[in-house]
Amino acid sequence: MTDKKNTLLIKNIKELFQIEKASKLKVCGLEMAEVPSLKEAFLISENDIIIDFGLMSELNKSESEFQTVINAQGKFVMPSFCDSHTHLVYAGSREIEYVDKIKGLSYEEIAKRGGGILNSAKLLRNTSEEELFSQAKSRIDEIILQGTGAVEIKSGYGLSTESEIKMLRVIKKLKEETPLIVKSTFLGAHAVPLEFKGNQNAYVDLIINEMIPEIASQNLADFVDVFCDKGFFTVENTERILIAAAKFGIRPKIHANELDFSGGVQIGVKYNALSVDHLEFVGDEEISHLLNSETMPTILPGAAFFLNLPYAPARKMISAGLPVAIASDFNPGSSPSGNMKLMMSFAMVNHRITAQEALNATTINGAYAMGISNIAGSIAKGKKANFFITKKIPTLEYFPYSYGNELIEKVILNGKIIEN
Ligand code: NIG
Ligand code: FE
Question: At what angle do helices 340-351 and 355-362 cross, to 10 degrees?
Fold first, then answer.
């Protein structure tokens, strides 16, 4: 029996971006200003893997050897976005709170009134696993067409053992049934549920003694997260949770320094977090901790935009030599969009970073922040054939500059064209 291989050639690419010159897992500091590329290029995949790319003038195979040939004349090809921080499994939506926000209530005030995360928790507990899956699946279908090829998804709207596991099972099913790369994160410490109001330590005990062992035994989480911030979980709570997860070999990714100088960055670095995310409140001390670490600082420009927060000092971090990743934070409260092209635009306008830096931040550095930069985040032989073809556009800068406009023409995941 012969194996029928699925082979794809993309020819005449005006410019092929983010090609890997030397193998690397992340891009730091000044290096972020460069995106290696080839003009007048080709790209070849076999089944779900990139097997070759180069200049058209060096293409030595005939078109008839390929099952599919795409002519990308005048168009760009980029690796799929790696969105390393989302909460896209949730029930319903929270647009009414958004109106409260416009009227002047702060994120913390809304949370204190039982809104925010607790509002989503109430909805989620009353939603079946099947319905939750179907809502999340349509969000996944949407972000695929917006260019995302890998996504991290957190629990954290269950806030009880049963409902957190329900969320993680939905994420597991998304891993199995959607074409993108999915990583799952247990975020039991997202908010203190109403049943534990005034008894935060007892809720942390439940996370440590019941949730983590159960989730680890069912192998439902790749990572663990804690919302380590003012009004949510303390550094002490966070440390206890990270120690408990480490016993099961689960590495942290931390919500840190969104609302204050919370100590979240320092505790994340201490426990070798893969990433610390948000970072609206970051100064020299946080930067120096990050410089001596393997932790990816991740900014969430959508959340800062939507909540009108101060902007994470991305320029300062990059100038200090740090890498930076950009993620969408797709969630019903602070960033109801998973559109990574839009996140690039926000990052440019509000964080003053360049198109090249933004592309590094949404591809290779995002991949690092979800532990997959060996298989995704750049155009490299042996990596997953996850990439997209743009419409005819003049420059790389045009892509985020033309904000809110759909410029992605064709998405390829696992070497297959996604039909919309
Ligand atoms: O990353 N900051 C904490 N959690 C989410 C918000 C979740 C929500 O409001 O539902 C965030 O912004
Ligand atoms: Fe978040």
Answer: 130
Q: Are 44 and 69 in contact (CB under 8 A)?
A: no
Report, as ranges of residue numbers, the positions in the chain whose pLDDT lies below 70.
Answer: 1-3
Same domain, residue pair 111 and 161: yes
| Pocket lined around ligand 1, Cβ cut-off 6 Å | 87, 116-117, 120, 227, 255, 258, 303, 329, 331-334
Helix (H) or strand (E) holding 161: helix 161-177
CB-CB neighbours of 353 under 10 Å: 25
> Do residues 75 and 134 both lie within one domain?
no
User: What DSSP string runs through 190-249?
Assistant: TS--GGGTT-HHHHHHHIIIIIHHHHHHTT--SEEEEEESTTSB-HHHHHHHHHHHHTTT
pLDDT given at position 3: 63
Q: How far is the CA of 35 from the centre of ligand 1 (A)?
A: 31
Residues 180 and 143 in one domain: yes
**Among 154, 157, 190, which residue has the most ligand 1 atoms within 8 Å of its CB, making it the best to mutate?**
190
Interior angle at CA 51, CA 67 and CA 357, nearest 5: 115
Asked whether residue 373 is assigned to any structural domain, the reply reads no
pLDDT of 115 reads: 81
Ligand nearest to the CA of 335: 1
Distance CA 112, CA 255 (A): 19
* Pair 320, 362: CB distance under 8 Å: no
Tell which residue, 362, 231, 360, has the closest CA to residue 301: 362
CA distance readout (Å), 255 to 175, 185, 219, 228, 306: 23, 12, 22, 6, 17
Count of domains for the chain = 2
- CATH number of the domain at 33, please: 2.30.40.10
The alpha carbon of 333 and the centre of ligand 1 are apart by a number of angstroms equal to 6
pLDDT digit string (tens) for 203-237?
Answer: 999 999 999 999 999 999 999 999 999 999 999 99
Whether this model's pTM surpasses 0.85 = yes
Do the beta carbons of residue 148 and residue 84 sit within 8 Å? Answer: no
- 396: containing domain: 4-79+378-418
